[in-house]
Amino acid sequence: MSEAADCKGLVLVVDDNQQNRALAKATLELESYEVVLAQSGEEALRCFEQRTPDCVLLDVRMPGMDGLETCRRLRALPGGTDVPIVFLTASRDVDTFEAAVAAGGDDFVTKPVQPAEMVLRVQAAVRMRRLDATNKENFELLRRQRDDLMRLTLQKERLTSFVIHDLKSPVSTVDLLAQLLQRDKTLAPETRETADAIRVEVSSLMRLILNLLDISKSEEGALTIAPSRFDLATLVAGVVDNMQVRALARQIKLVSEVDAAELSADADLLRRVLENLVDNALRYSPKGSSVAISLRLHPAELELRVTDQGRGIPTEMRDSIFERFVQGEGQAGAIARTGRGLGLAFCRFAVEAHGGHIYVEDAERGSVFCVRLPSVQ
């Protein structure tokens, strides 16, 4: 901690979670802020009365007096109207945002909060408190515009979430009807091929829907895994069987080179990771080429590798390719890896939820997508 003369301001952190308080304290003290901690709304009021802070970081959901009521009571204390209050919440929805604004909040940050973002929000709040009257008026205008934009963004996210959830049922119905067609022994070969193609495309659409749902959960800190022990070779063989129709339609050889290996992980999430990686490989591989799933063992990790013979990923894009809606470009700006930009983002979220990491390597021809996961102890 810097000396008092170098202190950037006093921050009151209010959160019932001990780990969250410890993270905020360590982060802000590194930036030369003085930090006071409170684990409840009642304690926050006492701390505020003893010494008025320059900024309050306030959790919305707390037992007893919640953050909204705490904010209202802080505003009623002497000096409380001038102190910026930044709400922290895991609920990214327009109703929570409106409630935070109505309670007197100045800013609204969704959890899990990154340390760098926390510091930037506190810096902005403290600077705002020290502005003169003219600058505060301009800042208030910008803040109202920001709040309007936040409302629109949250409303859009809510609508998107509703649409995604509602799509699952009709897509499943289409798949069921296609299965019924496949079982009709009187179908002409051409009609049966059409039913097969419908199921392939329905599988791709359902994978997109689930990707969107899980990406949303991950951004809200709600993506959890349900690990169990299973044979990796069996899971990979299932992925190959499921993707084989798509591979044959593209005249690509899809093979598994994975021998028996036991793994403790969320089998459903890992299966979908591999399906997304295989789908990505098939999409950009030329006719007559091959896509292979292989395994490498390391002392404390195992590495699944999906190798294709496509145009590859430019070196400068190998980190950003796992972000949402990012597409890879080839030489001279030619699109080499186009698409919805969600499959690889889901893969990163799912792999990181397992404590692993995902990255891209060069192949002799094409790319290798590598997934490293902790191995069974």
Brief digest:
With 377 residues, the chain is of the alpha/beta class. The chain contains ten helices and 14 strands. Helix 2 packs parallel to helix 3, helix 6 packs antiparallel against helix 7 and helix 8 runs parallel beside helix 9.
Which strand order do you get reading across the main beta sheet? Answer: 2-1-3-4-5
Nearest-angstrom radius of gyration?
26 Å
Q: Approximately how much helix is present in the residues?
A: 40-55%
The string of secondary-structure elements, in order, is EHEHEHEHEHHHEHEEHEEEEHEE
Count up the helices.
10
Oligomer: single chain
Distance linking N and C termini: 41 Å
CATH superfamily of the largest domain: Histidine kinase-like ATPase, C-terminal domain
Return the domain count.
3
Uncertain runs are 1-5, 329-340
Write down the overall geometry.
elongated
| CATH topology label of the largest domain | Heat Shock Protein 90
Strand content: 15-25%
> Using DSSP, what is the number of strands?
14
